[in-house]
Design brief:
single chain; 297 residues; mainly alpha; Rhopdopsin 7-helix transmembrane proteins
Length: 297
Amino acid sequence: MSSPLFSKRQNDPNWDADSYDFFGFQPSAAAAIVWIVCFALAGLLHCGLTFKSKFHWGWLVPVGCVCEIVGHVGRLIGHYNPYGLSAYLLQQVLTVIAPVFFSAMSYAIFCKLVPKAGREHSRLRPRTLVIYLVTVDIISLVLQGVGGGKSGAAGDSGNDQELETGRNIYLAGISFQLANTIVFTYLVFEYFYRISKSVGSIRSYGGSPLLLTLVGLMLTNVLIVLRNCFREAELSEGFQGHLATTEIFFSLLDALPMFACTLALALCHPCFGLNRLNIALPIEDEKRLTATRSESA
């Protein structure tokens, strides 16, 4: 009976990892090069923005871009040698964990935004939010790392039972990441809604910087949710299911959303948002603040 994961391989006592097509198809060299160039440019863009803004959390995006680049280098190697387990694991693991760094950047921006734009509009305090989000992301990274490592070791030895265990751990990590991103996306949308409801016009309240930051954050996390849904569906089918072995799905539902995500993070980068944010208080609050200052004088 064939393995549910590597369905193209029959149980063979002479199993040899060096002669097995791990990819299940020949990755496109042109697509790999295009995405390598795109993520390299995105990484350079964010390096420049981080230098300019001195927002140290901004280095998370170039780190994520490096993960994407190395992952696509794995796919490029796979074009010439689809039998290489190292290249397969390189692209599988690194393209899966890269969005964790993009998510972490959006968390950092949001947690810096809340005190400036109004804590009263946020369901959670920034400190509580940071602890929760970072903890969940670390757990997600650990699960994905353990699952990827276990799958790699099992793939090298041809142990289907261990491979299944590794895939399930891997899938749990992505599911955890997906659930966390959905929760955070809800919190950002809710914050946007509460500010809109409270002040009427976000543009008049915080100007373009606030609008760019909130729109960029919402777009970033919607793209990450889309990509994580694809990855969860892909892994649910198995490492050699239809989604995993049809490259157009990877390009349209993983690489493209993640590249767009880097552009959305540039849109809401502190260079254009937080560092230029000047909140216009409602008239009642301005009068109250003026009266307080007069009494103090």
